[in-house]
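A further point concerns the way the authors explain their paired sequence and structure data. Nothing conveys this as quickly as seeing an actual entry. An entry of this sort, consisting of the sequence and the corresponding C-alpha cells, reads as follows:
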Amino acid sequence: MTGEEGELLLEADQITFEYTPGTRVLDTWSAQFFAGTTTALTGRSGRGKSTLLYLLGLMLNPTSGNVIVDGETTAHLRDADRARLRANKFGFVFQDAALDSTRTVMDNITETALYRPGKRSALYPRAEELLDKFGVKLPAHRKPGQVSGGQAQRIALCRALLTEPMILLADEPTGNLDPDSTKVVVAALREHAHTGAAVIVVTHSSDVAAACDREIVL
C-alpha cells in the first residue's frame, strides 16, 4: 500500500455529470476519501450513486470537474492513461459479480494481470489464498455458471483484492447475498481499509452503511 493511514487517496472536485444535455445526474459534487476509511454512499434510487462510483473509478468522464487519484489530476488524461490508473490503483466489486461465464474462476480472478506487468501465473498463489480465505471450496478451473450467487460474489471480491488496490469501489456488493455471505463481504471490505486503502461502498443496506466508518447521503 502507499501512504500512511489518513492520507488523501481520492478526491472528487466539483464534478458534474450529464448523460445527455439536460439530464444532469450530479451537480458540482465534491468529497474526499482517505486511507484506512470505509465510506458508504447511500440515498434513494435514481440519485446517481452507481454513476458516481463509475466516475470515481474513471470508467466515466465527468461533464465538468475533476477526479484526483493519489494526487494525480485525471480531467485531461487520455483513455490509455485512465486505464493505467484503474489497473494500478483500483479494485472493483460489482453488484452482479460481473464474471465472464466463458472463462474459469481463476481466469476471472486474475484478469487484471492483463493490464499490469509480469506474468499472469505469478498471481495464481495469491488468488488461491483468497479463494481459501473466503471459503470458496471449488476447483479453480470451474466456470462461474457452475457456482452459487454467494460464491460468485466472493470470487468477484477475490478479483478486486488480488493486487491489494489502493482504492476499492463496491457497487451494492451484498445486494443479492444471504446474511452469512454479507458478513463475509463486509468484513473483507473493512479489513482491506485497515491495510491503508480507501474503500467506497454504494449500498441500500442500513446495516452495511452502519458498518462503514462514515456515510455520505446523495
